[in-house]
């Protein structure tokens, strides 16, 4: 419980005025709440003594009315402040998580499943919010309430009777703390299981077409059923531990009442307390039931919140494995010198002895067999992964010294994944430049050869593309992605196998547009189609992470290597998408 409060010290410190006011409100509210039982006890003694008058009765009713109004007002303030804090911490942590996700490199997402990350932003955050909300509510209320009641019982009635009646209370607290530690471990396991199940749902929905095409519905359902049962078992362990609190509290409460009645009767017979005081004491003791139950609720919620925030903190404490500099004074001269790279999760070298000198404004073509390292080379330029061995420089400055955001601002990247948002065609294209004019938008559409397709769409540019562009064909998705980069008019345009789903005529039109409009700007084209890079100033052929050929189209077409064979195969009528 204390660890949970310690982990959220930054929040309570930032909002200390709110929680100081909250604490004062609780103290005042508890003082108000102990007054009515005292008045009831005194009233009984007045009636027993025969000294109750009409005027005195009216005063008592008036005091009760005032107490009700004050108690209601303080309860409102208390509840508002506590839930305000709960929703604030949930919002702040959610913003911090999203910011962390946006800044982390791809290797982070390779190590953390999407479903588990979503569980942290939803279920785990809700547990933290409940801990700060209901947890803090019950902690402040029960502890302040219990202390106020105990002091009042000792001062107003009898300190001896109070001590004797609450003898079982330390045992209750000790056992509840022990159960709370068990809940912490069980809840953390349950949340991890929920994350795995969440990830399974995402994979199932995304791959539903593949599942149906291979008739694997029953197997997928069986796999998911096992995961849900595993989560249920782990969650039920938490529920079983939760269920121990109420019976335990009921037993302790029963014992305290037995002790109260037994010792209370003895003290009345001795004349140490009056009947009215004994009734007042038992009302106070009855009021102690809530703090006793609330202690269990507090420990439960805070241990859950602590377990969840520990999981969230692991994300916050994860350092990005790509270190960036602040240098922003550079152009677009790109240089690799004896560069080598191995993926963090790989057991073999993915790039080796890469040397490239790409001047600003040149066009570079990169070709080679599937898996030869073409995309890996580009990911190093985009600063997606830790930097390898050798030199990778921009204008002679090591890329590790360059501001990532500033450099990426100069890049327009079309990946082979063609990621689209569940929005309209217009919104997906404008993602590349939010403040683009209508003229710039139409120019980007024309350059990407998307104009005729948009005319045939039901709502033109306002056509919804569906989740991940499901409403569009493969070629249309590629061209929307290309238009998104064209509208940015970047200093460096990178097309990573971005023309694989378009026909030869459309590809030719896009290439011609690139040649006509990107004079003086750097362009990098990765492709399996040699026709897309014939105009390049320099062409690289990669194989097993190494550059095995380099030159212009004319030079490579007569080199006797892989490029020449691929080109001759294409001229003979074969598809140069096919690999020899």
Briefly, what is this?
This protein has helices at residues 2-7, 9-14, 16-33, 35-49, 54-103, 106-111, 114-157, 159-165, 169-206, 208-213, 217-243, 245-270, 275-287, 289-316, 374-381, 404-409, 425-430, 438-447, 451-456, 474-486, 504-517, 553-556, 562-571, and strands spanning 334-341, 351-358, 363-368, 389-394, 397-398, 411-414, 492-496, 522-526, 538-543, 546-551. The chain is an alpha/beta fold. Its main location: membrane.
Description:
- This protein is of the alpha/beta class and 580 residues long.
- It folds into two domains: 315 residues, ABC transporter transmembrane region fold (Up-down Bundle); 174 residues, P-loop containing nucleotide triphosphate hydrolases (Rossmann fold), CATH 3.40.50.
- It is 63% helix and 10% strand.
- The chain contains 23 helices and ten strands.
- α5 packs antiparallel against α7, α7 packs antiparallel against α9 and α7 runs antiparallel to α14.
- The chain is elongated and about 120 Å long.
- The mean pLDDT is 83.
């Amino acid at each position: 419980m204390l660890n949970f409060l310690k982990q959220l010290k930054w929040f309570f410190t930032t909002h200390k005025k709110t929680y100081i006011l909250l604490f004062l409100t609780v103290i005042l509210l508890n003082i108000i709440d102990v007054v009515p039982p005292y008045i009831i006890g005194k009233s009984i003694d007045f009636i027993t003594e025969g000294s109750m008058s009409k005027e005195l009765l009216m005063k008592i009713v008036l005091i009760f009315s005032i107490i009700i109004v004050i108690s209601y007002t303080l309860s409102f303030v208390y509840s508002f402040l506590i839930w305000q804090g709960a929703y604030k911490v949930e919002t702040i942590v959610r913003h911090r998580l999203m910011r962390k996700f946006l800044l982390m490199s791809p290797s982070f997402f390779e190590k953390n499943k999407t479903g588990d990350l979503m569980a942290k932003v939803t279920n785990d955050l809700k547990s933290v919010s409940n801990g700060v909300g209901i947890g803090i509510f019950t902690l402040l209320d029960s502890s302040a309430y219990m202390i106020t009641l105990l002091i009042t019982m000792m001062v107003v009635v009898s300190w001896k009777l109070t001590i004797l009646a609450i003898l079982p209370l330390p045992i209750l607290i000790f056992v509840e703390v022990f159960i709370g530690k068990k809940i912490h471990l069980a809840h953390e396991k349950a949340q991890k299981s929920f994350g795995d199940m969440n990830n399974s749902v995402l994979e199932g929905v995304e791959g539903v077409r593949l599942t149906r095409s291979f008739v694997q519905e029953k197997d997928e359902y069986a796999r998911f059923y096992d995961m849900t049962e595993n989560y249920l078992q782990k969650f039920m362990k938490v529920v079983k531990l939760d269920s121990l609190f109420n019976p335990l509290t009921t037993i302790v409460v029963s014992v305290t009442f037995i002790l109260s009645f037994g010792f209370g009767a003895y003290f009345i017979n001795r004349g140490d307390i009056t009947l009215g005081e004994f009734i007042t004491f038992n009302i106070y003791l009855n009021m102690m039931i809530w703090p006793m139950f609330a202690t269990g609720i507090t420990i439960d919620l805070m241990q859950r919140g602590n377990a969840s925030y520990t999981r969230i903190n692991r994300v916050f404490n994860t350092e990005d494995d790509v270190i960036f500099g602040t240098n922003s004074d550079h152009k677009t001269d790109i240089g690799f010198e004896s560069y080598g790279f191995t993926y963090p999760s790989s057991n073999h070298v993915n790039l080796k002895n890469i040397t490239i000198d790409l001047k600003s404004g040149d066009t570079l073509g990169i070709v080679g067999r599937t898996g030869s390292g073409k995309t890996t080379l580009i990911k190093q330029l985009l600063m997606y992964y830790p930097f390898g061995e050798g030199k990778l420089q921009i204008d002679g400055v090591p890329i590790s010294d360059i501001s990532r955001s500033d450099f990426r601002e100069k890049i327009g990247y079309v990946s082979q994944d063609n990621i689209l948002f569940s929005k309209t065609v217009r919104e997906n294209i404008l993602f590349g430049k939010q403040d683009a004019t209508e003229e710039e938008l139409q120019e980007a559409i024309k350059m990407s050869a998307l104009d005729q397709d948009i005319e045939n769409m039901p709502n033109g540019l306002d056509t919804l593309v569906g989740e991940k562009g499901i409403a569009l064909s493969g070629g249309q998705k590629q061209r929307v992605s290309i238009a998104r980069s064209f509208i940015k008019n970047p200093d460096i345009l990178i097309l990573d196998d971005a023309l694989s789903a378009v026909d030869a005529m459309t590809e030719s039109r896009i290439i011609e547009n690139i040649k006509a409009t990107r004079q003086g700007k750097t362009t990098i084209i990765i492709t399996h189609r040699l026709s897309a890079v014939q105009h390049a100033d320099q062409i690289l052929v990669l194989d097993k992470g190494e550059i095995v050929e380099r030159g212009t189209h004319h030079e490579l077409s007569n080199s006797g290597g892989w490029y020449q064979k691929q080109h001759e195969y294409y001229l003979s009528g074969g598809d140069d998408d096919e690999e020899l």
